[in-house]
Amino acid sequence: MERHVRLGVNIDHVATLRNARGEDYPKVVEAAKIAEKSGADLITVHVREDRRHINEQDLGDILNVINIPVNLEIAANTEMVNIASYYKPDSVCFVPEKRQEVTTEGGLDVIKNFDNLKRTLKSLSNTNIKISIFIDPDKDQLIATNKLGIKTVEFHTGSYANAFSKQKNVKFELNKIIESTAFAKKIGLICHAGHGLTFNNVTSIASIQDIVELNIGHFIIANSIFYGLENTILKMRDIIAQAIK
Ligand code: PXP
Question: Is 85 a domain residue?
Fold first, then answer.
């Protein structure tokens, strides 16, 4: 069977631009519709505690206008789990969150947060929401994730992306993702990846045989300012398709 890597388009930064001026444009629902039309397999949004970009109204509006799945990134706390339970996105990805960070700077430490995650998962267990967790490509994190009963991980590709920009330690960072994907597969986990991916660095990640989904946001929205959202998504799809040939 031909391999397909799902592309999740993260539209958080359409809301960042909107919120920078407190206007009602650019509209996130427009971005979601264009992304769907351009071949995104899913829309990803992160409702942060400080609502710096996407808010729950956006989440509800997006769910109402598109026919592809919505993946909601949230911190593992009661407020966010209540939002997920109410809006029922197709999937939830648990991410770490610090108020001062510019973006999600690393994966969630499953070992450190094991008990809290266990409680959080329990409160979503009566829903059909698929669960994933954003972790660093690390064996111990994978073992802990498996112990929690979570079946899908998203590897944080930020260290690889940074290495790629600096052209330093690229092989080392890439190998961590390759080896972690192989280990995840061995213990029965499904692998996604994302963070900092661009036209230039996505090929090596998409080429990893057992990665089935990529979530890409900042670069896609930034590039869209000059080249349009549809063109950018089509080109990203094309690069991913070339990578998996
Ligand atoms: N995946 C997850 C879990 C994230 O938290 C983010 C950033 O919000 C991304 C993917 C997308 O990262 P970027 O915006 O750098 O493409």
Answer: yes
Tallying the residues shown for the chain, one arrives at 245
Judge whether 58 and 66 are in contact, CB under 8 Å: no
The reply to whether 1 falls in a domain is no
Peptide bond connecting 69 to the previous residue in cis, omega within 30 degrees of 0: no
CATH code assigned at 82: 3.20.20.70
Q: What is the DSSP letter of 3?
A: -
Residue 132 in domain: yes
Known catalytic residues?
46, 73, 195
Ligand 1 binding pocket includes 107 (Cβ within 6 Å): no
**How many domains are contained in the chain?**
1
CA angle 29–34–40, rounded 5-degree value: 105
CA nearest neighbour of 158 among 182, 188, 134, 140? 134
Residue 1 in this model has a pLDDT that exceeds 90 = no
What's the rounded Cα separation, in Å, for the pair 117 and 77?
Answer: 9
* pTM score of the predicted model: 0.97
Ligand 1 touching residue 10 (CB < 6 A): yes
pLDDT tens readout for residues 97-139: 875 666 667 999 999 999 999 999 999 999 999 999 999 999 9
170-225, pLDDT tens digit by residue? 999 999 999 999 999 999 999 999 999 999 999 999 999 999 999 999 999 999 99
